[in-house]
Amino acid sequence: MNEIILIGLAGIIAVAAPIIFATIGETITERAGVINLSLNGTILLTAMAGFVVSVKTDSLLLGFLAGAAIGAFVALIIAFTSITLKQSQVAVGFVLTLLCRDLAYFLGNPFMGLPGPRIPSLPISGLKDIPLIGTLFFKQDILVYLSFILIAAAYWWIFKTRPGLMLQGIGERPAAAFVRGANVNRMRYIYTMIGGALVGIAGPMYSLSAKAGWKGTITGLDGIGWIALAITIFGGWNPIRAAFGAYLFALLQWLGIVLQPSFQNIPSQVLQVAPFPLMILALLLVNIGNTEWVDRTLAGLPESARRFIAQVLRALRTTPPASLGTPFENE
Amino acid sequence: MKVEIKNIHKHFGKVHANNDISMTIQPGTIQGILGENGAGKSTLMKILSGFYQADKGEIRLDGKLTRIKSPADAIKHGVGMLHQDPLDFPPMPVIDNLIIGQSGGLLPNRKVVRKQFEDLQARFNFKIDPDAYVDSLTVGERQQLEILRLLWLGAKVLILDEPTTGISASQKEMLFATLKILASQGMSVIFVSHKLDEVEQLCNQVAVFRQGKNVGQAMPPYRTPQLVQLMFGKSMELAPRIDSTSCDVLVHMKDLAVENYRLHISGINLDICKGEVIGLAGMEGSGQRLFLQACTGLRRTVGGKLYIGQRDFTGKPYHQFLNSQVSYVPASRLEEGLISGLSLTEHFILAGEQQGFIINRDKALKLTESRIKDFSIRGIPETRVESLSGGNQQRALLALLRSPLQLLLLEHPTRGLDIESSMWIWNMLKERCKTGTAIIFTSSDLDEVLHYSDRILVFFGGKVSNPLNAGSTTVDSLGQLIGGKGWEN
Amino acid sequence: MKTMTKTSSLWINTGFRIAAIVLALAFTSIVLLLSNARPFEAFANIINGSIGSSKGIANTLVAWVPLLLVTSGLLMTYATGMWNIGIEGQITLGAIFTTLALRLMQGTSVPPTLAIILSILAGILGGALWAGIVALLKIYGGVNEIFGGLGMNFVSTALTIWLIFGPWKRPGTGSMSGTEPFDTSLWLPQLEGLRISLWSVGIGIVGLLVVYFILQGTYFGLKLKAVGKNGRAAFLLGVPTTRYIMAAFLICGAFAGIAGAIQVTGVYHRLIPSISSGYGYLGMMVAMLVNFQALWAGVVALFFAALNIGSIQLPIVMKIDSTLSGVLQGALVLFFLLMEGARRTFLSKKRGK
Question: I want to staple C89 with a disulfide (CB 3.0 to 4.6 A). Which of A310, B389, C62, C156 is the partner?
């Protein structure tokens, strides 16, 4: 029984890996002050493209590279329209969400249901036999290992390195970053595309691994991109907290599957949407402390209760980079 | 460092913002630049600090012809600029603020940076915690941080653009002392301001700008009327104070308490008379804004009672205050006061009483035209508010106020305006007082507080003074209270 | 002099718009070539399928009505600066409430005309309810309306499927084809031999006119715009901001609810799993394409409806997926946004000189 739970937990870590790629990609993009809203479409398009390229070339690597390239290209469109042409990032991102989705379904139509390659499991000898930890972390595939590295690397880059501090500055106050020598718009282009490439790797991680193959509209990927965007907010633009969000989400999804037999009269389609009310709930928790009425209501409470609630809300609250979504012009 | 500016020209479209400006600043001096808004001071400073490129003319640093391509390039040449609103990163720690922009390898050496920062602080007797977050510092401390940062990066010329806006009197004194130390160490300091007394107090030499030209230089001892004449091309006088005698109580506060996540102010007891002007003084962030917002229902009080015209307004929402003739004019005109993208007419429709469901455009147009005339706003009814100048935006904001009013609350009513506009606005406000309106306003300009208030409340770190009679208060005693001295009772 | 610059800028504007259309067509052609289809054949088939026959035209109008209603509603939320992405769920809830009302009244003594009217009112209620939840989450929970709306969309889909396979399942077993169709007396009256009901067309046109009037001529409309352009300043000027945001959502939800009601009473005559047919998202694209101005919404919505209908037969005729219409619509809006940005950059550069 313990073994079953352990394998389940290992599965959670694997299921969370693509979401981690997407969420951290978006975290990096938003840290620079740009919103890439297209995640839901990008993941579908890159899942399809990665699968098709792998089938045609018989190379997993090329499949992932295609995903990354397409993800970066979609991000480039967002960067160009919002940074250079100063159009609304939300508008462009939303249109790309739909356009990429329809492109995925249209171009992927002839490849529906074809057999394709799957990324192999790659247990790490020496580490895989450690009790508990071995099964949990070291009997995974290479992209799961990369997801661990990505969490640490992104955190280290943003908070510890000199360019990473500048990245924070660009998203917080581009005018101050400019005075300190940053080429704000160029850096925004670069980080948007890096973030987009990471999102683009998440797609093939589904079609070449977790949910192998391309099955068109019933692939079951529609919605994942939105979850990743919500986790970015929940994660407070911090890679470690974001990864925690991704694991929490995967855990809840797994519980849904495990507990399904106990709710037999509920169609499976209903349980599949359970993450979305949870997404709303999570966003409610991190945002409700920012609302005006809570402030007003708190003011009417006795002092001790007021202090306590304010502290809880502040611990949960996340604040976005100050210039998120606004273009920068030096004068 | 010796700075030579020769025959600088700069055009923005049809506006000749800098017209053949020349001046020389010797090392070890504080050069004042005086002028109204739009006189071309800021343009020249932005050319010197790399934001703009001059159309014509040259800059020599220590005799060497220099082309300054960007603000980052300027600091490499030793020219550092302190902006009116310090360009730092509020949600980040002080130490990270220093590191951003410092050149070097991938990983910054925080230990070394911290040591160098502490050493620099000791030179000026500053006490900023390197691990504090910048948004927990006062504006004065943020200026200190920026000055230290620029020195740390090797600045030999320091430009300060209206640095005393938004800081307290004691912080101003500290700033001036610092600048004098820097000059004595051979730095060149350029001090840009439109405040005569500051420039007279601090500078070794003053240049006066008017309409894009350098119209005159002056050396100490300064003759104020001469400077005024140069600034405006004519002489001017300030309006006299109007004294009210009898008191008809309008606002009654009993043990009022307000708080935000940083400050807790309690025990405010105050009666305000009809037609009275109450000035709120103190360092930025000492609680004046909190108090003002509580008086207009934008922030809920956490204790005590507030009565306006005998009615209990404790805990009531903003719109109830507004409908009971209590109005609030925020400091940031385009962020909070006016709506970018809407015309003047549309603003007057919004601010006025709603009549029916369908807008009567003709009527609105007539009203707008008459208000534009009464308030001498430079614009037409179709003008979008964002294309008005700062002074005209402030006039528009006042024109939007309803009549009659019981209580009017203003934040920095003349911030960033030239003397002429400021005087016009205060004349307008005093007219309102004659009809019985009481005014509460905040300002960081002590002269403004002293001159226009009947009584003054001083705020310091969550404490509020008893009301001071403005007629018998001096700049000195006010400055001491703002700086935290003389509170022991 | 002034008229000269006016006409020249008109030419510039038109030029950039035409460029956007050409680029979108070129992009779609490349996509078609990638899947080994001949672009001209595909476009010809779309035109033929939408306006090539009276049946096609009728079907285009069937798609036009909900799209027009949804776009009209969205113009209200866009005015307040809100992205009502939850519009899909609002259509669905309108359809569910309408179905519920009709199920309750079917076979009772309620006259059919009254039953239809009441069911549409129920649809309005359903759409507004769903939109109200999103607005509540936004105003009192700080949850961005994009995420709130999206979550509610997925919930509404699950609700539909649960109803179709659960409480409202057809006699025997539930199926993806939906609930049992209603009695023909409860259908919106249709033209002879065609699927279109003139009643629904009328409702759609009136809806757009109402929105146009509200936004152009009323205090309510001006206040909505003030909230959208600067909520803080509008609040300080005395506009009860949250109430206006709530009102915009409720009105938009009501419009979506009517669209859902028409899908049930006028088109499918039952509840089906994807009753909203993606009209919500499509309406958001139409609103963007007309730059949030009501004037052109009718025409562009008609064009998008024609694309949808025209591409239905593509899988049969050319063996390509019908999502081609989505590709073309998405490309049109994307290139429109691109060209709009390019035009502004071009004009400001020209003015700079």
Answer: C156
Within 8 A of B341 by CB-CB distance, chain C residues are: 229-230
* Of residues B71, B72, B91, nearest to A172 (C-beta): B91
A207's enclosing H/E stretch is none
Q: Average the pLDDT over B354-378 and give the result.
A: 91
Sign of CA dihedral A217, A223, A226, A227: negative
Query: Pairing relation of β-strands B30-35 and B188-193?
Result: parallel
Return d(Cα A41, Cα A100) in angstroms, integer: 5
**Residues spanned by the domain of A127:** 2-316
Residue A328 covered by a domain: no
- Check which CATH number belongs to the domain holding A266 and give it: 1.10.3470
Given a contact cutoff of 8 angstroms between Cβ atoms, the answer to whether C32 and C42 are in contact is yes
Indicate which of C92, C165, C337, C338 best probes the interface with A, i.e. most A CBs within 10 Å of its own CB: C337
CATH number of B3-232: 3.40.50.300
For A313, name the nearest residue in chain B, comparing CA atoms only.
B261
Whether residue C4 has pLDDT greater than 80: no
Report CA Rg, chain A: 21
Residue of B nearest to A331 (CA): B51
Contacts of A310 (CB under 8 A, 6+ apart): A289, A298, B261
Domain tally for chain A?
A: 1
Tell me, yes or no, whether A226 lies in a domain: yes
**Minimum distance, in Å, between the CA of residue A41 and any CA atom of chain C:** 12
Give yes or no for residue B197 having a pLDDT over 50: yes
Cβ-Cβ contacts under 8 Å, B318 against chain A = none
What span, in angstroms and rounded, lies between the C-alpha atoms of A141 and A131?
A: 19
Tell me the β-bridge partners of B305.
B254
Can you tell me the distance from the alpha carbon of A88 to that of A93, in angstroms, rounded to the nearest whole number? 8
Structure confidence by residue, pLDDT tens digits, B438-461 = 999 998 777 888 889 999 999 887
Band of pLDDT at residue B200, cut at 50, 70 and 90: confident
Domain C55-319 part of CATH 1.10.357 = no
Beta-carbon separation of B359 and C218 below 8 A: yes
What tens digit of pLDDT does each residue of B239-278 get? 445 555 678 899 999 999 988 767 788 889 999 999 999 9
Edge-to-edge order in the sheet of strand B157-161: B79-82, B157-161, B188-193, B30-35, B205-210, B213-218
Token pair belonging to A18: 């693509």
Q: Where do you find CATH 3.40.50.300 in chain B?
A: 3-232, 249-482
pLDDT of residue B39: 82
Q: For residue A270, list chain C residues with Cβ-Cβ distance below 8 A.
A: 158, 161-162
CATH no., domain B249-482 = 3.40.50.300
Q: Pick the residue of B326, B329, B339 with the most C CBs within 10 A to test the interface with C by mutation.
A: B339
**How far apart are the C-alpha atoms of B484 and A173, rounded to whole Å?**
32
For tokens 């504006």, the residue is: B139
Please report residues of C whose CB lies closer than 8 A to that of A280.
137, 143, 147-148, 151-152
Question: Tokens in use for C253?
Answer: 């939800």
Q: What is the DSSP string of C249-285?
A: HHHHHHHHHHHHHHIIIIIISS--TTTTTTHHHHHHH
Enumerate the domain spans of chain C. Answer: 1-37+322-353, 55-319
Q: Which of A88, A99, A277 is closest, CB to CB, to C151?
A: A277
| Percent of residues, chain A, with pLDDT higher than 70 | 97
For chains B and C, count residue pairs whose Cβ atoms are closer than 8 Å: 58
Q: Among C212, C237, C348, which would you mutate to test the B interface (most chain B Cβ atoms within 10 Å of its Cβ)?
A: C237
Q: Find the residue in B nearest to A161 (Cα).
A: B107
Compare CB distances from A175 to B72, B87, B299 and report the shortest one's residue. B87
Helices (H), B330-418: 344-351, 361-374, 390-400
